[in-house]
Specification:
The chain is α/β, with parallel strands linked by helices. The chain is built from eleven helices and six strands. The protein binds iron/sulfur cluster.
Length: about 280
Amino acid sequence: MIISYHSWKEYGECPKKYFLKYRKKAPYSVPRNDYHALYGKLVERFFQHFCNTWRFTMPYMPVEEIKYKLTSLYRIVLDTSTVDWTAPFITASQEDIFNQAFGDVNAIMNSLSQNYFLNTKSEVSIEVAVQSGAQLTCRLDFVHKKAVGDHLTIFDGKGSMTIGKNVEDDQVLFYALMYYFHYKRLADEIGYFYYRFNTYKPVPISLSILNEFRAKLSLRVKEMVADSTFTATPSAKACKYCEYRLSCIEGMESKAKRKRPSKLDIVEQEGITEIGM
Ligand code: SF4
C-alpha cells in the first residue's frame, strides 16, 4: 500500500473518501474543475525549471525570459487541466491568471528571495518502506541548502490567496520526517513559501516535534493498513470539497442535519402562524 501525505490526511478526514479516491479510484461525482489549481501549477512549474535547470547556466533570469518560459509552461498547464470557464465561482479569466502569476514570479525574481531559489532543488522524491507493510512516498517542493555551511531548509510552495488558509503544519512535518528517514538528517528549518506574497513562513521543528508527529503518523498508517470497512466520517471540513459529495448518502444526511433551520422551519415546528402586520 502506497501512502502519500494527501492520502494519509484524507483518511484522517474520512476513510470512505480515502477508499473511493485512492484504493477504488472511483470516478468523482462532482464534475472536475482545475480552475483553482492553475495559478499554483504554473508557478510551481516555473520554479521547478529555475531550480533544477536554469540556475546552473545563469544566476538570474531576465524578465523577457521569465515571460517566455511562463507562456510555454502555461500552455502545458492548460492542456493538462480540465477547466469549465462557465462555472459560477470563476472570477478571473485565463489571461488574468497568467498576468497574476507573471507579476508574482517577476516580483520574487527581483527580490532577495531569488538568491534563495539559487541554492534550492525542486521536486525531490522520497520513498520509505515501513514495518506495517506500507510504503510512504512524497515529493518535496523545495530543499534549500545554504551556499556556505550545512544549513538545510525543506519548504513547500503555496499559491493560497490568504497566508495560512487551508495549510497545516503536518504537511511539511511529513516531508521533514521522510527526509529524516531517508537521509538521517534533521532539517534545520521547515516552512511554507507563499508565492503571491513573496513570503516565507516557518513551522517549528525539533527532534521531539518530529517524534511526536512520527507517533501520530504511525498510528494512522496502522489503522489504514488494518481497515476493511472504510466507514464514512462526515463533517463540514471533510465533506466541503469532497469529490464524492454529490453521491454520498452519509455526507448528504450529515449536511442536512448540520443545516441551521430557517425561520420558516422554526415557525412550522412550533405550530405558530405568522401574520404579516
Ligand atoms: S461526502 Fe463526506 S462522508 Fe462522504 S465520502 Fe466525502 S467526506 Fe466522506
